[in-house]
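Case study: Zn(2)-C6 fungal-type domain-containing protein.
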Amino acid sequence: MSSRRTQFSSCDECRRLRVRCDAMRLNRTAGLRHVDGEIGGQAAAQKACTRCAKRKHECSFNWMRDVTRPGAQKQRQRQVNPNASTGVAATWTQPVLPVSPLSSVPIALRHYPTETVVVETVDDNTYGDSQPGSAESSALSSRYPPHTLFDSINSDVVSWIDALFANCFNSLFGFWMSVDACPLLWNSDPKSNAKNHALEQTQLDRDIDIVLMFSTLDRCVALVTNEEQSVCSSPYTYTSPESNQIIDQSLHAAIAAFTASWFPVILDHGLDVDNTIRELWRFTRRDTLRIINRPCYRSVLSLFLFYLTPIPANVGEDEERDGMSGSCCALAAIRHLESLRSLCGGLQFSGSKVLHMRRSIRQIASELGISDLGFDFIGAESSAYWLGLTIDVSMSLTLNCRSVLTDGPSGYNSEMMWLLIQGRATVFRQTTKSWLSDGLELFDFDRARFTLSTAVAWKGLLWKLVANVLEALRTALKEEDILQVLESALDAIQQYYVTFGPLLKMCQDRLLFLHQEVKLQWCT
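Here is what the predicted structure looks like once written out:
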């Protein structure tokens, strides 16, 4: 394999991003020279490169400051990493992530006291941006220090990020994945969901905290993989403090970028929210590279949130192509989710043999008595799978591509998920026969929630059927097969208006008098 190209003439920003820099060429073309004929330090090019000029960044060459002095590199190595030859771990100071009082979600966007974290020293020049033995190459987590995310953010914006996600989006995602909306958690009697609830929660408390749920799922996976290492090794075990910290920080950055994209709707532009949105999006996109090869449930949630985050305004096409796209992150998250779900079954493949773990994740989770999810491990796993399935179907519809987790036009009829949704609609029609005659006076919170949750699931079925029509046309099926798929989609649309249309209209008329939770759930 050829060695990585050394960037001798790149500015600091282009060198960090490993992209081509044209600062030297522009200065030579303009007939400019470096100040005092030197390079580095204050002797930067008088004309900025195209990338820095377009983004209004300072085009500096500070990295050359010590390189141009003889012996400076070895001296810097001795100062930064005196124990590199002996393999002794180096120390790095970074902020402690607190717990948000609103939703028990740590928010990595504030200034807090720091503590020293011990990390392993890396001696090779892994990323090409830092010199061997420097502080940048001492740990993976030092590539994107957490303080760069929130140093330039207004304190009012930070408080809005915390409150908006905890009180709005966490409720929306929680309803989307709750026991009422997830088809895999439905019972034959819709009212039995509340009666058989593990914690005997009220209707308002049935929505789940998605960050808490995904974190607890990772805890269960880590427990079982650590215990079964003698049977089979798993690549999905990240229980070291450094890896957990990296994953948590990436999740918090994804939450901040996703929440900040809604700031123009609620905040005054005088707070420079546009620049904040762009910086958060850029940081989160760079940060996805740290977690895309660390498959766990929190990484899945981070990648999904970045996929749902729109590209900010004033971001050029060249910058969009430089890094990871949202669709690539979503596809990676779906693959990770599929692998994690297969890990929970208790079977592992090792070469030509199939190894059966002595105890599965479900057994260990039940023995641990993990009850902070609001339901058992199987329910949490099913909710996470329902989230991934919904995003997968949405991608197949909007991007006109094949679905990963579900079959195409020829096999979707036999899948359990869509059969459960159709059965739920039948139960819904039988249950709501007398609701229209009762009028608006009896249309309370319970009825509104039952209507919205069933309609949300049926909307997922509609997306799947429309995506099947596009796939049938794209794969050039027979004409009778295409007509059959099209007829199924049109029939589902008609059933939606007949079954849910009148009750949704009643819910809309009553919306101002219903609970705030229902108003948020109406947006789904």
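For the exam, be able to explain this: The two ends are 50 Å apart (CA to CA).
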